[in-house]
Specification:
With 174 residues, the protein is an all-beta fold. It is built from no helices and 15 strands. Strands 9, 10, 11, 12 and 13 form a 5-stranded antiparallel beta sheet that branches.
Length: 174
């Protein structure tokens, strides 16, 4: 298991493995069919990363991991190859939370907190593989959402990235 609180866990690879992210600076891949730990990605192994990993998920092809970490001093979105080779790409510009890959791997969606109110923007960054590396477009705002708190992540996106389900508190009396 983990030595710190598990912050996120997601199914991957046809629901045969689980990727878990923890406050102990580890991302772990678990073979759930055999209940064994397959691979441990530790902060010191992930180039320049020694802070809590707050969320994580595999790319649709299983070759990369998107994760949320506060390694820059605030929560941000990053991508690294799996298994790690020392490469890393920062996807968010002004911080970000709760990253999700589009099913074709061409976009990463994430929540960016608004500093002035308990709301956020849902953002998308286009992703391309170029010469074995990764290129990301600058994140673009899709729409604003009034989440109950800055840490809420009450949203989901369809596989094609065209429709969103959002728990929005705008207009609800407090």
């Amino acid at each position: 298991g983990h030595d710190g609180a598990v912050r996120a866990a997601v199914f991957a690879e046809g629901d045969q493995v689980v990727l878990s992210a923890s406050a102990d600076n580890h991302i772990k891949k678990w073979n759930i069919g055999q209940y064994e730990e397959v691979r441990v990605l530790q902060g010191v192994v992930m180039e320049g990363h020694q802070d809590a990993i707050l969320a994580a998920g595999f790319s649709p092809d299983g070759k990369r991991i998107v994760y949320m970490s506060d390694e820059s001093g605030r929560a941000g979105i990053y991508v690294q190859p799996f298994p790690p080779d020392g490469s890393k790409w920062q996807i968010s510009v002004r911080g970000g939370r709760r990253p999700v890959w589009r099913d074709d791997g061409k976009e990463i969606f994430f929540q960016s907190p608004d500093r002035n109110s308990p709301g956020a923007s849902l953002l998308a960054a286009g992703i391309r593989t170029v010469n074995g590396g990764l290129e990301a477009d600058p994140p673009r705002e899709l729409f604003r959402v009034a989440f109950p708190t800055l840490t809420s992540s009450m949203w989901s996106v369809t596989a094609d990235g065209k429709r969103f389900l959002v728990a929005d508190t705008a207009g609800i009396p407090s």
